[in-house]
Design brief:
Blueprint (H helix, E strand, L loop, with lengths): L5 E6 L7 H15 L3 E6 L18 H10 L2 E7 L7 H9 L2 H4 L3 E7 L6 H13 L3 E2 L4 E3 L2 H4 E2 L2 E2 L2 H16 L10 H5 L6
Parallel strand pairs: 1-2, 1-3, 3-4, 4-5, 4-6
Antiparallel strand pairs: 7-8
Bound molecules: flavin mononucleotide.
The site of flavin mononucleotide has 15 residues, from helix 1.
């Protein structure tokens, strides 16, 4: 049991009825279907002040970083906000660095009220590259989330399957061989200890 890939999902929405959280839970079900174990980091339950580089272990940041570090793979889930990912998730990511993400498999998921939230996932992909994470080429989006879900359940089977597949893929590639460092990561002096 000890070697089962551990997948940790981080939810970038604080909304009680968050559709991002519903989608991440389905992705974690997918991880379990592929033989992994999963946990959700619900940022509503962590005290994470806006990141201040003078206090990089503020509040519950040590708990956040420990849980991300302990994972074999991470799923980052965000609502699309103004064409990008949420500030909640950005704050969480700013508390993390190479110790948490270097050579870690990452799956990306974004949810939007409008059409496909491609830019939110692209922006997250750039952040992950700067941290030398290994981001799955496959990604999952839930456009027009108000139509795709009802009462905390998917009503769109195709989107649900795509999200579940993201979870399965994170397990499949959780222990992938390391890649050489990226150009962006060598410039990322802030992510060093
Ligand atoms: C501040 C804010 C900005 C948003 N910007 C966009 C946007 O640029 N494009 C879009 O498609 N939806 C946008 N939305 C809609 C959300 O992406 C959508 O409601 C999503 O389902 C919210 O995720 P949640 O249910 O997990 O909170 C925005 C919502 C908020 C609150």
């Amino acid at each position: 049991m000890a070697d089962l890939p551990r997948v940790t999902a981080v939810c970038g929405s604080l909304r009680d009825d968050s559709t991002t959280r519903v989608a991440l839970e389905r992705a974690l079900d997918g991880a379990a279907e592929a033989g992994g174990t999963g946990e959700l980091i619900d940022l509503r339950h962590l005290d994470l002040p806006l990141f201040d580089a003078d206090d990089p272990a503020a509040g519950d940041a040590p708990e956040l970083t420990r849980r991300v570090r302990d994972a074999d793979a991470v799923v980052l889930g965000t609502p699309m906000y103004h064409g990008s990912y949420s500030s909640v998730l950005k704050t969480a990511l700013d508390y993390c660095g190479f110790d948490e993400f270097e050579q870690k498999t990452v799956g990306l998921l974004a949810v939007s009220g409008g059409r496909f939230p491609i830019t939110a996932m692209d922006h997250l992909r750039s952040v992950c590259r700067a941290l030398d994470a290994w981001v799955l080429p496959y990604e999952a989006a839930v456009p027009q989330a108000y139509r795709a879900m009802s009462d905390g359940e998917f009503t769109d089977d195709d989107l649900e399957e795509r999200v579940a597949e993201l979870g399965r893929q994170t397990v499949r590639y959780a222990k992938i061989e390391a890649c050489p460092a990226t150009f962006e990561s060598r410039e990322n002096v802030g992510a060093e200890d």
